[in-house]
C-alpha cells in the first residue's frame, strides 16, 4: 500500500532498501507484501525500519502491523555462546543488536543473563553455584510424583550414589510408617505425610546422607563416609547432627530455617511414644563405627540404653533449634523478585500489567497459530492465578469440562484430589470447583470440609480468551499427543510427547511468561514492570494477600484470597503491614480535613 502511495513497486523498493551484503532475496519482500510470511530475523526487522524511514512512517509502524513476536530472531551475532543459551538470550535482545558497538553488546548480554535469565538475587547466585556441586544419595523406594530436585538423574556424576540396599530398605520403612492409612500394629505416629511431602522428605534425606558420603577433598567437602556404613540410626547421635549443622553453615555462611526444619525431623524421630527411631530399637544393630564421628563406645552405650539415647537426642535437637532460631537469617526471600509489585499502591493492578502486555504483543494467529496458543496460555495462567490465588499444584491439575458436557461428580473429584473448571448454567459463568482434600492445607479452618468454589468474572477479555483456548488453542499445543484432560497443557513436541504439566514444567512455563512479558527491558522497551525478577506461580499468592492487606489492613480478609488462615498471613506478611496500617488510618483521618 505504501509503495503504491509513493508510485513504487516492490522491485523498486527492494533495490532502494536492500544491500547486497544483507543476503535478502527480492522474493522475501514479495511474500511480506502478500501477507504470506512475516519478517522475523534481525536483518529483516532492520529492513522494515529502512522502509519506515524511506516512507516517513513512525518507528515501529510495520512491527505493529505484524503483531507480537512469535519466536526469537535467529541471526544475532552470538557465535561464542552455546546454542541453548543463545536461544534463551535472543528473546530479550534489541533488533539492532548486531549494529551496536561490541562493548554495548557485551553489556546487554550481561544484563539479560543476570536479570532476565537467572534473576540477580543473592539466593539465585548461591543456588546457581551450589547446583554445580552434585552430592546426594538417591533412594529407589520413592513412589508418586517426583519433585523438582537438585539430585542428578544419572549415577557417576560427582557425589551422586545410589543408596545401598540396607539404607534403601530403611527409607522404605519410614515411608510406610508415615504414609500408610493405618500405623503398623504396635506403633504410634503423629501426623501423616502426603505424596508431595513424602517425595520432599526423600530428597532431603538424600542430601543429608550425601553430605556424609561426599569426599572431603571434593568441592562439597563432605565427611567421606563409606556408603555401606550409612544408616538412619546415625540420626540418634548429637555429634552427627552438630557436624552436619556446621557443614551447612560453612557452605552458606550463616544458619537458616532449613536447619531448624531438619532438626525438627530429628526431634520427631526420637520423640517419646510417636518417634519412629524411638519405636525401632532394632535399628541399633545397623550401627557401625565411623572414624572421627561414631566410636565403638558410642554404639555400645546406645545399644544398652536406646530410650535414653533418644531422649538425649530429642533434648539436643530442641536446644539447637532455639539456638539457631536466634541467629537464623533469611537467604531465600520469596518477596524479593516481586518487590516492585508488592510496594505499589495496588499490587494486583500492577501485576495485571503483565497480562495486558501479553495481549498487546499477541502474535498474529493466522501466521503463527502455535505461538499465539502459547501466548494465550501464558495470559490464562496469570489471569486465573490472580483470580483464584491457587497453589501451582491445584492450578496445573485443574481438569477441564467443556461447556455442554456433564461435570465430574464432586465425589469423583475428591477421589482424584483434583479440581475442575466447568460452565455453571445456574450462574452463567465459568466456575472452578476444587474439593478441600485437594489442598495442601485441607484440614485448615478456612475450608471446614467444604469445597472451594469460585465463579470467574467476565472481565478484561477473560471469558473470550478461555473460550478461544478451549475451542482451538489448546488442541494446537496438544497436537498428536494424548489429551491429559487438564485445562492447562504444555506444548507437545517430538522430544516431549507428553502434554501434561509436572511441577518442573509448570514452574518453567510461569517463569518464562514473566521473563518475556513481565520484566521491563530497557534495551528493547518491552516488558510491563521495572525491577521485576523471574519468579514462579506461588508468588501470585503474595500479590493477592499483600493487595488486600494494603486495602483493608485485615489479616482475615487477606487469608480469604489465598485459602488460608489469618494466623498464617500474619506470620508471613506482617512485614508489609505497619506502613499500610498507618496509611489506612491516615485516609480516614484526612477526611475530616478534606470536609473542612
Automatic annotation (TrEMBL):
Keywords annotated in UniProt: DNA recombination
Gene3D superfamilies for this protein: Intergrase catalytic core
The protein's name: Uncharacterized protein
GO biological process entries: DNA integration; DNA recombination
Record SUPFAM superfamilies: DNA breaking-rejoining enzymes
GO function terms (MF aspect): DNA binding
Superkingdom, natural source: Bacteria
InterPro entries, per database record: DNA_brk_join_enz, Integrase-like_cat_sf
Amino acid at each position: 500500500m505504501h509503495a503504491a502511495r509513493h508510485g513504487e513497486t516492490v522491485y523498486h523498493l527492494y533495490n532502494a532498501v536492500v544491500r547486497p551484503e544483507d543476503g535478502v532475496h527480492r522474493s522475501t519482500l514479495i511474500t511480506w507484501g502478500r501477507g504470506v510470511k512475516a519478517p522475523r530475523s534481525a536483518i529483516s526487522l532492520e529492513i522494515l525500519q529502512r522502509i519506515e524511514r524511506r516512507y516517513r512512517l513512525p518507528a515501529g509502524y510495520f512491527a505493529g502491523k505484524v503483531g507480537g513476536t512469535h519466536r526469537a530472531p535467529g541471526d544475532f551475532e552470538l557465535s561464542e555462546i552455546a546454542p541453548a543459551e543463545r536461544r534463551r538470550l535472543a528473546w530479550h535482545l534489541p533488533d539492532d543488536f548486531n549494529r551496536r558497538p561490541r562493548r554495548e553488546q557485551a553489556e546487554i548480554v550481561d544484563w539479560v543473563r543476570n536479570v532476565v535469565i537467572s534473576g540477580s538475587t543473592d539466593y539465585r547466585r548461591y543456588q546457581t553455584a551450589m547446583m554445580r556441586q552434585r552430592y546426594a544419595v538417591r533412594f529407589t523406594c520413592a513412589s508418586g510424583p517426583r519433585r523438582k530436585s537438585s539430585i542428578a538423574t544419572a549415577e557417576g556424576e560427582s557425589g551422586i550414589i545410589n543408596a545401598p540396599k540396607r539404607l534403601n530398605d530403611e527409607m522404605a520403612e519410614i515411608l510406610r510408617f508415615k504414609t500408610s492409612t493405618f500405623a503398623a500394629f504396635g506403633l504410634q505416629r503423629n501426623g501423616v505425610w502426603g505424596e508431595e511431602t513424602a517425595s520432599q522428605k526423600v530428597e532431603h534425606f538424600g542430601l543429608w546422607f550425601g553430605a556424609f558420603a561426599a569426599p572431603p577433598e571434593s568441592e562439597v567437602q563432605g565427611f567421606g563416609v563409606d556408603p555401606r556404613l550409612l544408616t538412619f540410626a546415625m540420626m540418634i547421635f548429637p555429634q552427627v547432627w552438630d557436624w552436619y549443622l556446621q557443614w551447612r553453615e560453612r557452605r552458606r555462611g550463616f544458619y537458616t530455617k532449613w536447619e531448624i526444619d531438619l532438626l525438627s525431623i530429628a526431634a520427631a524421630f526420637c520423640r517419646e511414644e510417636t518417634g519412629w527411631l524411638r519405636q525401632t530399637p532394632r535399628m541399633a544393630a545397623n550401627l557401625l563405627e565411623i572414624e572421627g564421628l561414631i566410636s565403638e563406645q558410642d554404639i555400645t552405650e546406645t545399644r544398652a540404653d536406646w530410650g535414653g539415647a533418644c531422649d538425649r537426642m530429642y533434648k539436643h535437637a530442641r536446644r539447637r533449634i532455639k539456638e539457631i532460631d536466634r541467629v537464623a537469617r533469611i537467604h531465600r526471600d520469596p518477596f524479593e523478585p516481586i518487590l516492585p509489585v508488592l510496594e505499589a499502591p495496588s499490587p494486583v493492578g500492577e501485576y495485571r500489567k503483565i497480562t495486558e502486555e501479553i495481549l498487546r504483543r499477541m502474535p498474529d494467529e493466522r501466521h503463527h497459530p502455535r505461538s499465539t496458543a502459547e501466548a494465550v496460555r501464558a495470559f490464562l495462567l496469570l489471569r486465573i492465578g490472580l483470580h483464584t490465588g491457587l497453589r501451582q499444584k491445584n492450578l496445573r491439575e485443574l481438569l477441564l469440562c467443556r461447556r455442554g458436557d456433564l461435570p465430574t461428580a464432586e465425589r469423583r473429584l475428591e477421589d482424584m484430589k483434583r479440581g475442575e473448571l466447568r460452565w455453571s448454567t445456574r450462574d452463567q459463568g465459568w466456575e472452578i470447583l476444587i474439593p478441600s482434600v485437594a489442598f495442601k492445607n485441607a484440614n485448615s479452618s478456612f475450608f471446614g470440609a467444604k469445597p472451594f468454589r469460585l465463579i470467574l468474572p467476565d472481565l478484561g477479555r477473560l471469558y473470550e480468551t478461555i473460550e478461544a483456548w478451549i475451542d482451538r488453542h489448546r488442541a494446537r499445543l496438544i497436537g498428536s499427543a494424548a489429551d491429559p484432560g487438564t485445562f492447562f497443557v504444555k506444548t507437545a513436541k517430538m522430544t516431549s510427547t507428553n502434554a501434561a504439566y509436572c511441577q518442573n514444567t509448570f514452574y518453567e512455563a510461569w517463569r518464562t511468561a514473566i521473563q518475556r512479558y513481565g520484566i521491563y527491558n530497557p534495551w528493547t522497551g518491552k516488558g510491563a514492570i521495572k525491577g521485576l525478577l523471574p519468579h514462579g506461580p506461588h508468588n501470585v499468592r503474595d500479590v493477592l494477600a499483600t493487595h488486600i492487606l494494603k486495602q483493608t489492613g485485615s489479616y482475615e480478609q487477606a487469608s480469604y484470597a489465598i485459602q488460608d488462615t489469618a494466623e498464617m498471613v500474619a506470620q508471613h506478611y506482617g512485614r508489609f503491614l505497619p506502613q499500610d496500617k498507618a496509611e489506612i488510618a491516615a485516609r480516614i483521618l484526612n477526611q475530616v480535613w478534606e470536609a473542612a
